[in-house]
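@channel sequence for tomorrow's demo:
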Amino acid sequence: MSLEKYKGIIPAFYACYGDDGNICKERTKKYVEFLIEKGVKGLYVGGSSGECIYHSVQDRKDTLEAVMEAAKGKLTIIAHVACNNTKDSCELARHAESLGVDAIATIPPIYFRLPEKAIAKYWNEISDAAPNTDYVIYNIPQLAGVALTASLFDEMLKNPRVIGVKNSSMPIQDIQMFKRQAKMRGKDIVIFNGPDEQFVGGRLIGAEGGIGGTYGVMPELYVKLDELIKACDFDKARELQDAVNEVTYTMCSGVGNMYAVAKAVLKKRAGLELGGVRAPLLNLEESDEAVVEKAYNLVMEAIEKFM
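structure tokens (generated this afternoon):
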């Protein structure tokens, strides 16, 4: 089985709303087309950047259906299908497989502190619901409250569909440890760097690509960053990493949620109207106009300098 289709820049897809606040399939498709034009490897649909925990099962189905219609086989699609219960997660897994996604992914259940046996059972039952589809573990302990431990990973490596880990823990050492552990078990996997701000470090220590929440506002810059690493141009890669990080820090500096800022920047740079964010996430306030303008200018300056 070739894992090449997973190696590269995979933006975490933003939720696209209509004026009524509901998922808008037309706006979703236009955003997919924009990302295809920028040369990304694939899309990660229905994750944190897609505001998944604030969506109904139907919302998530609608988004994925629109993405698949627009992608038309041109992109690797990873569908995050985890809900906070097994039943809904399995329904989304079956739906994703029926649409022909490349892989499904899941965070662990949140709120209740479940034992590892329960987490593994939850993950494997979701994977069983999509028996012909690859499976990616999403490790984001700072938000989920549960870390992918060595013992839990060992248990999941028994599942033949497990092909990778989206690693959003902050220590980049975890990337190397997961690669080493899988290799010791005789399994080749893909590790995706999660924290955008340390993409260069993650790639150098062993990640084959990345899935990130800020890629979607400046996809060509992350594609370029990946190319620089492949070309061993590390000085320029560090310089570009600093530039994209400045965009990220700026987008996080507003009153409104970072994804609301990102969508406003996309509207300025590409005419994309993706709506705001879903409550309880905060939409932009008047004072955020300066934040959007600064983030937009930083993106365009970086494109002019590095592309």
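heads up for whoever presents: The chain is about 50% helix and 10% strand.
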